[in-house]
Design brief:
Strand content: 15-25%
Helix content: 25-40%
Radius of gyration: 24 Å
Number of strands: 23
Bound molecules: nicotinamide-adenine-dinucleotide
Shape: globular
Distance between the termini: 79 Å
């Protein structure tokens, strides 16, 4: 790991605040980052205090005045070079993501690949920030709209995608002409330090204004400061619904803009007309991948009564094959939870489920002994439960899967939609009517609805996000760029008269 840290410019003690190429005094307490893989301390970071936050915001404000005047394709060229740098650092960065967060090595690399993909997307976008033109009702007038950058985009991110979520926001925001200030999760601070070092290389080589890429590594108080800060017109926050409600209220109170990407409670409907071989892979990967710590993790299976018993038995057999262990070992299917607090929440959820009448088909528990010294490895488990159990209505960020039975598709859709969250959903069916009903306006109420693939995994081209308590934000693909810009409608009179709209006469 020392080689990897050195390659990414990570020292034993690291700064927690930066304006781009320069680290500034962070002023807060020193925070060690422990790996959930083996429980060892990786390195330390000095947390940003309020003075550091102020310095980074001030520099970002200054940088915006210059950056907004760079032609968008020139900004795109910087993003292109960032993509190249990420290709160069894919291995060490992917390994650090895996070691600091605990996801599998393949998922660590996959996360860096997502960063590269969003760079490519944003480069193209930098030449496509299109506005519409409209026909004016007034003679000799032209009307059109254009999109301008907003200013500072504040990015608050969660531990489970410690680098990709930042890049989803930042690459689009930069192409749009915004400057960014990132408040990463305090559980994965070194991933943020590594990204900042990679960016610094590109920025120094291209004389990008200092302040375009700000970093403030802090705890929730720094995120709260950002949410209340009128100098930050857009706050993009990814994390729990609890956090999103707080950030959304604070940003809303100052009539700022927020992009919220919050918790999910994702279900797969398994029809009696499903290809069960595909379904089993989609369900198991969706439920146990990243140890159940994806916002799109499959948490509920809604299974048709005719195939319930056989599917349940196949699922239990598949769970018995799972290998839990070091995520850097390619033979492991399931790695650790992020920390002991997460393990505690997992254990509490199992107890709550039992107390509400849940029947565990695959028992959970914490693993001990050689290879499990960090205390963060848990057994993925499966319980038969009722849709209305309070624990089933709640997102537990751990590999606990709830099984439910249905008779009719309407009933299955009602169960699928009957939770406060609305992120990802899917149906396994070869029946066209069922698939189309699920995707119709009377079907899934989620931001993501899939057929014959699971709930987890997203591609950069599509807009990502969900409804209800998931927060309503969309980022990454499609036209998600618009949230990072302000729309301006322009009317130009090239006639010799001043006709007023709606035929109003105003004679002087
Ligand atoms: P979390 O809410 O505990 O923390 C997320 C971030 O918010 C951290 O940077 C944290 O410091 C900050 N924060 C916490 N309270 C805050 C407050 N009151 N004001 C401002 N900032 C605050 O979440 P987590 O445990 O890091 O991540 C897991 C959660 O994130 C899950 O609920 C998961 O579903 C969600 N998530 C959602 C998406 C999505 O795209 N919808 C993606 C990844 C994770």
């Amino acid at each position: 790991m020392q080689d990897i840290l050195a390659a990414l410019g990570i020292k034993a003690s690291n700064g927690g605040a930066s304006t781009g190429t320069q680290w500034i005094a962070a002023g807060g307490r020193e925070l060690p980052s422990f790996s959930p893989v083996d429980g060892k301390e990786i390195a330390k970071v000095t947390l940003a205090d309020e003075a550091a936050y102020e310095a980074v915001i001030a520099k970002a404000q200054e940088a915006f005045l210059e950056w907004r005047m760079w032609p968008s394709p020139k900004r795109g060229e910087i993003v292109r070079q960032v993509g190249e740098a990420l290709r160069k650092y894919k291995e060490p960065l992917g390994q650090l993501v895996s070691y600091e967060m605990g996801k599998s090595l393949q998922e660590g690399y996959g996360e860096v690949q997502e960063m590269i993909d969003i760079c490519d997307f944003a480069v193209g976008l930098s030449r496509q920030l299109h506005g519409l033109t409209m026909h004016s009702e007034r003679p000799g007038h032209r009307m059109y709209e254009q999109w301008h950058p907003l200013g500072i985009v504040g990015i608050i991110s969660a531990f489970n995608f410690p680098v990709a979520v930042w890049s989803w926001n930042t690459m689009l925001a930069w192409a749009c002409g915004d400057v960014c200030v990132w408040k990463p999760s305090e559980k994965t601070p070194l991933c943020a330090v590594a990204c900042q070092n990679i960016i610094a290389e590109v920025f120094a080589a291209n004389n990008v204004p200092e302040g375009v890429c700000g970093l403030v590594i802090g705890e929730a108080n720094i995120g709260e400061k950002m949410a209340h800060d009128g100098r930050v017109p857009l706050v993009s926050a990814t994390g729990s619904t609890r956090m999103g409600k707080s950030v959304g209220a604070a940003v809303g109170a100052r009539l700022g803009r927020s992009l919220l990407e919050l918790g999910g409670n994702n279900a797969i409907i398994i029809s009696k007309d499903a290809d069960l071989d595909i379904a089993i892979v989609g369900c198991v990967f969706g439920a146990v991948g990243t140890a159940g710590q994806r916002c799109t993790t499959t948490r509920r299976l809604i299974i048709h009564e005719d195939i319930y018993d056989s599917f349940r038995d196949k699922l239990v057999a598949a769970y018995k094959q799972l290998r839990i262990g070091n995520p850097l070992d390619p033979n492991s299917h399931v790695g650790p939870l992020i920390d002991k607090g997460a393990v505690e929440q997992y254990l509490q959820a199992i107890e709550k489920c039992k107390a509400e009448g849940g029947n565990f088909l695959v028992e959970g528990g914490v693993l001990e002994g050689a290879g499990y010294e960090s205390g963060c490895y848990v057994k993925p488990c499966v319980a038969e439960a009722q849709p209305n159990f309070s624990i089933v209505q709640h997102e537990t960020f751990a590999p606990i899967l709830y099984l439910m039975k249905y008779k009719t598709l309407d009933e299955a859709i009602a169960i699928q939609n009957g939770v406060p969250q609305g992120l990802s959903s899917s149906i396994m069916t070869l029946n066209l009517r069922e698939a189309e009903t699920f995707l119709s306006s009377a079907g899934s109420d989620c931001g993501i609805a899939n057929v014959n693939i699971g709930t987890s995994g997203a591609e950069i081209g599509g807009a990502f996000g969900g409804e209800k308590e998931t927060g309503g934000g969309r980022e990454s693909g499609s036209d998600a760029w618009r949230v990072y810009m302000r729309r301006q409608t322009n009317t130009i009179n090239y006639s010799t008269a001043l006709p007023l709209a709606q035929g109003i006469q105003f004679n002087l």
